[in-house]
Amino acid sequence: MPEAVLARAAADMLNWQGCGMGVMEMSHRGKEFGVILAQAEADLRQLLQIPAAFHVLFMQGGGIGENAIVPLNLSRGGTVDFVVSGSWSQKSLKEAQRYCNAHLAASNADDGHTRLPDPASWQLSGDAAYVHVCSNETIHGVEFQQLPDLAALGSRAPLVIDFSSHVASRPVDWSRVGLAFGGAQKNLGPAGLTLVVVRDELLGHALEICPSAFNYKTVADNHSMYNTPPTWGIYMAGLTFRWLLDQTEGDLRGIAAIEARNVAKAKLLYGFIDDSAFYANKVAPDCRSRMNVPFFLADESRNEAFLAGAREAGLLQLKGHKSVGGMRASIYNAMPLAGVQALVDYMREFERSSA
Question: 88 an active-site residue?
Fold first, then answer.
């Protein structure tokens, strides 16, 4: 979370804008929270340039919940194509098998999830209800630099993207998207809020077994208020949307500024790793994630020493996911360039002292 957002929330904790109560004390039906909800949606639409043909839904259940909710709403019990590019898209495929014919259209498992499957090799179904991709894989550090053009690949299915871990870090080409979903906890706000952006034409096709609170049409018809929404999460995300809109880099503002900053952070870290014989990143350069940078020490017996020294330097949560090992630096929107520079400085010194 951006420090400025946390400070603003702290200042309003007991008395939001002089109304006499904090956000966590508000009724979700009250006028005060109505203002917060409406402003959050308006700011998000402006931030991500979301077209009017899309509904913005504030839900619960996280990305893993959406792995079930999406097929319950969009699959119609038929075939869905999945492109597996890492652990999260693999989880999505596995969960969807409970509700539809989940077809593996492409996978990069054979090369250890280190490069994206070439779209020309995708085996897309002629009758798919939708095509699912995870546009940024946090564990393996693989990111789509451009969303696939399904029409150019001969598919008429809508594209569903799990953009949990890089939402609001770069623009979205909505002309290629039918639905986008993501947990808020990486770039938008605290855990507990899930964002869904869905084309109007995809509503109204939920399976009979879909719970009413997870039926996108029901949620949309009730403006995310069919059941009690995650009010605090929406409030915090709203503050983050406003913070993002206000960011500048030279003549750039908003998402353009954030993207430029993220490019600079990633370039700094990957550049150092590539120039070092002590560290290595295994992901193909054309699909490296700007948000999640996995790397390995040439001498992995030094891993614990590296992590201990990092903690002493104030650099936290660098241990890689247990399924892949090594290290992982997550450099989300709120991480300043100075933070990445501090990591690089530490890595350089650790390499020098280990020689």
Answer: yes
Q: Is the pLDDT of residue 250 over 90?
A: yes
Q: Tokens representing 71?
A: 């097929």
User: What are phi and psi for residue 276, nearest 5 degrees?
Assistant: -105, 145
Predicted pLDDT of residue 283: 97
Q: Are 320 and 292 in contact (CB under 8 A)?
A: no
Q: What are phi and psi of 36, to 5 degrees?
A: -60, -45
> What confidence tens digit (pLDDT) does each residue in 82-114 have?
999 999 999 999 999 999 999 999 999 999 999
Closest CA to 60 of 211, 221, 248: 211
Which residue among the candidates 16, 81, 88, 217 is catalytic per the annotation?
88
Q: Which of 159, 107, 170, 169 is nearest to 132 (CA)?
A: 159
CA distance 10 to 22: 10
Residue located via tokens 């890089």: 166
Cβ–Cβ under 8 Å, residues 61 and 183? no
Distance, CA of 84 to CA of 149 (rounded, Å) = 17
At 311, which amino acid appears?
Answer: R
Which amino acid is located at 236 in the chain? Answer: M
Half-sphere exposure for 117 (CA within 13 Å, toward CB): 22
Whole-angstrom Cα distance, residue 69 to residue 210? Answer: 8
Indicate if the pLDDT at residue 28 is higher than 90. yes
Catalytic-residue membership of 162: yes
Which regions of 108-254 does DSSP assign to beta strands (E)?
A: 131-134, 136-137, 142-143, 159-162, 179-183, 194-199, 248-249, 252-253
| 173 annotated active-site | no
Cα dihedral value 185, 191, 193, 194, nearest 10: 50
The model's confidence at residue 355, banded by pLDDT at 50, 70 and 90, is confident
Write down the catalytic residue from 81, 186, 217, 243.
Answer: 186
**Catalytic one of 16, 43, 122, 162:** 162
